[in-house]
Amino acid sequence: xxxxxxxxxxxxxxxxxxxxxxxxxxxxxxxxxxxxxxxxxxxxxxxxxxxxxxxxxxxxxxxxxxxxxxxxxxxxxxxxxxxxxxxxxxxxxxxxxxxxxxxxxxxxxxxxxxxxxxxxxxxxxxxxxxxxxxxxxxxxxxxxxxxxxxxxxxxxxxxxxxxxx
Length: 165
What we know:
Strand content: under 5%
Structural class: mainly alpha
Shape: elongated
Order of helices and strands: HHHHHHH
Largest sheet: none
Radius of gyration: 21 Å
């Protein structure tokens, strides 16, 4: 097990690895349960306003093209992504206390079983979680870049992408 040596070198798993990546990503979205309440509220307000500013042009576009089914089919995936992101955002935001309790239970279990026979299994799960989190974080970052391109006008976006061709 190659990963076990790497994970066993981590003394405190709650400051390294996938836990730290999740914490930073959730703090960026304002849904980390241990974050200051005022910071969480401001960050969530900013993200909701950004989401609304992306949705409004899509709704206007949809109203203009609702008679053409080909164009409607092209606009549906954008709506689905926005709806899925909104559901995830509000689910995690509204269940913050549950997530905080879960994190505290994981911390307590790690301290309790960290020196026992279950340590290897815990390190294996931690490493698999780290790999999944890297993939998840990269898709979130990619989605944010696409959202940023939506804010730019199309000429600017094409000028930025012209070096690829």
